[in-house]
Amino acid sequence: MRDAWERARTQRVEVACGGGRGRTGTALACIAVLDGVPADDAVAFVRRHFDSHAVETPWQRRYVARFAAW
Predict the structure, then answer these.
(1) H/E stretch holding 50
(2) Strands (DSSP E) found in 1-70
(3) Domain 2-67, CATH 1.20.1740.10 — does that match?
(4) Torsion from C-alpha of 50, 27, 70, 64, nearest 10 degrees
(5) How many CA atoms lie within 13 A of 14 on its CB side?
(6) For the chain, what are the domain ranges?
(7) Long-range contacts for 48-56 (Cβ within 8 Å, ≥24 apart)?
(8) For the whole model, what pTM was predicted?
(9) What are the average pLDDT values for consecutive 10-residue runs of the chain, which has 70 residues?
(10) In whole angstroms, what is the distance from residue 55 CA to residue 20 CA?
(11) Which of 13, 46, 51, 69 is least surrounded by Cβ atoms within 10 Å, i.e. has the fewest?
């Protein structure tokens, strides 16, 4: 995800999964964290700006919450 974030400075980067919401939203939320969005706000940020149903499971939300610590 760090690579995607860094590449996005100079080129288009696409993030996708089968349904386009759960794993895609999780990746986008993690990239938002890398860009400075607080981890506690990243899921809401992605839901507001990408898809209101993004980051579908509790496990995905936990992953985003813990992402900043890695």
Answers:
(1) none
(2) none
(3) no
(4) 50
(5) 3
(6) 2-67
(7) 50/25, 51/20, 51/21, 51/25, 53/21, 53/25, 54/21, 54/22, 54/24, 54/25, 54/26, 54/28, 54/29, 55/21, 55/22, 55/25, 55/26, 55/29, 56/21, 56/22, 56/25
(8) 0.92
(9) 95 94 97 96 97 97 91
(10) 10
(11) 69
The span from the CA of 19 to the CA of 12, in Å, is 21
Number of helices followed by number of strands (H, E) in the chain: 4, 0
Query: How far is 1 from 37, CA to CA, in rounded Å?
Result: 15
Long-range contacts of 10-18 (CB under 8 A, 24+ apart): none
Contact 50, 43 (CB under 8 A): no
Helix (H, G, I), strand (E, B) or coil at 60: helix
